[in-house]
């Protein structure tokens, strides 16, 4: 067998692969498992989107190579969507890149913009794909802790001046995976000021843009004046339209970053199957009731989980967006020992917070991706454990 390159070996290990193995083993052993561990939406893609794919897949035009950088109608649909939803003007020709899911863009951006040894500001806890792109670019990470007492927003005043001098890129993500926190306009204003002062490029990951609770509609980074001068936003169809398997998303914003992403993609791929591009445009421009019902589903699951946990004496904070709850583990446990404990004692799977970074080490993430019946069942199993979170 052949040796792996140093570059490949330098990539962070995929922490959640071990979680998937544990789940498989527990299921194979015949346990009745309730899986809150993963982030895969459990509902199907809305029918009108699937129907559009079916029709589009019959069209010979879609059997040919699509344009390298994606169809114009799709980028125009993204522009219309941003105007309609956020009142933001986007030039479809220069300010939109079509991605193979949000993941594609997040991993591609660091090698597009960084040289070896450059510094990147990364939220901790955070989505692990940020680390992968940084490793591919052979750049360095400086972690920005997201703490509960600061509503899980990074405190820019705490970043050492010499790091800010060196930093070239910053990842942010609101609504946040894993903490369920949201950002407001003030925070984004502060971010833009920091970016302008230090010549930083901001990548705002808006994967959960559609999912806000208690009537709150998450704000787009691009709504903040000056945002396009300093960065981009990643929008994905995966969570908003239950299209995780379709692998399509967008980078939107600063034209020089969009051009860099397009350039690297020119070398790596020809764009996505045309029928998927048509279906994605249909999702963005067609009926939007599917989003209302998706948000309602997650809202009732969130309410059920949080009120159920409160009833049994667990003092947990309700997430404001995304589809995750972020729970502090009881005294004496780490995120890993508590996850193992829940799996072994009551067959409930949660994601250990350490998988999202060092600051996640005292938390577990609970995904709201299972039915209300199963959430109730999980709470009744937890009640029997007789342990408390305060
Ligand atoms: N960003 C965050 C914070 C996520 O949680 C996910 C998926 O779980 C993604 C990006 C990537 O989504 P996709 O590649 O399916 O668009």
Automatic annotation (TrEMBL):
GO MF terms held by the record: transaminase activity
EC number(s) recorded for this UniProt protein: 2.6.1.-
Gene3D superfamilies: Aspartate Aminotransferase, domain 1, Type I PLP-dependent aspartate aminotransferase-like (Major domain)
Keyword annotations from UniProtKB, A to Z: Aminotransferase, Transferase
Cofactor: pyridoxal 5'-phosphate
InterPro entries in UniProt: Aminotransferase_I/II_large, LL-DAP_aminotransferase, PyrdxlP-dep_Trfase, PyrdxlP-dep_Trfase_major, PyrdxlP-dep_Trfase_small
Domain Aminotransferase class I/classII large: 32-382
Coiled coil spans: none
Highest taxon in the source lineage: Bacteria
Entry-linked NCBIfam families: PRK08068.1 (NF005977)
Protein name, per record: Aminotransferase
Species classification: Bacteria, Bacillati, Bacillota, Bacilli, Bacillales
């Amino acid at each position: 067998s052949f040796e792996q390159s140093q570059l490949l070996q330098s990539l962070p290990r995929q922490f959640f692969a071990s979680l998937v193995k544990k789940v498989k083993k527990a299921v194979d052993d015949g346990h009745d498992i309730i899986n809150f561990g993963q982030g895969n939406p459990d509902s199907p893609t809305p029918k009108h989107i699937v129907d559009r794919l079916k029709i589009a897949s019959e069209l010979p035009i879609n059997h040919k190579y699509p344009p390298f950088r994606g169809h114009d109608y799709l980028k125009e649909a993204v522009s219309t969507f941003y105007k309609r939803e956020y009142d933001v003007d986007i030039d479809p020709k220069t300010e939109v890149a079509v991605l193979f899911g949000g993941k594609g863009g997040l991993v591609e951006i660091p090698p597009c913009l960084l040289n070896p040894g450059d510094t990147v500001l990364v939220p901790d806890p955070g989505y692990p794909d940020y680390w992968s792109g940084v490793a591919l670019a052979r750049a360095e990470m400086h972690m920005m802790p997201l703490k509960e007492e600061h509503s899980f927003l990074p405190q820019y005043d705490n970043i050492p001046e010499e790091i800010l001098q060196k930093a070239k890129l910053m990842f942010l993500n609101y609504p946040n995976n894993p903490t369920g926190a949201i950002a407001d306009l003030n925070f984004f204003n502060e971010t833009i000021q920091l970016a302008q002062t230090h010549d930083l490029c901001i990548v705002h990951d808006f994967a959960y843009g559609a999912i806000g609770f208690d009537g709150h509609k998450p704000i787009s980074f691009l709504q903040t004046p000056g945002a396009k001068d300093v960065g981009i936003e990643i929008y994905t169809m995966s969570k908003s339209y239950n299209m995780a398997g379709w692998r399509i998303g967008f980078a939107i914003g600063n034209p020089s970053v969009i051009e860099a992403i397009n350039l690297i993609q020119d070398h790596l791929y020809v764009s996505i199957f045309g029928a998927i591009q048509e279906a994605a445009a249909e999702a963005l421009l067609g009926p939007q009731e599917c989003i209302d019902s998706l948000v309602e589903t997650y809202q009732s699951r969130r309410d059920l989980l949080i009120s159920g946990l409160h009833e049994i004496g667990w003092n947990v904070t309700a997430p404001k967006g995304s589809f995750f709850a972020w729970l502090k583990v009881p005294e004496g446990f780490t995120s890993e020992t508590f996850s193992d404990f829940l799996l072994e004692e009551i067959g409930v799977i949660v994601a250990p917070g350490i998988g999202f970074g060092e600051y996640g080490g005292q938390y577990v993430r609970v995904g709201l991706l299972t039915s209300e019946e199963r959430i109730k069942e999980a709470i009744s199993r937890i009640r029997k454990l007789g342990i408390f979170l305060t």
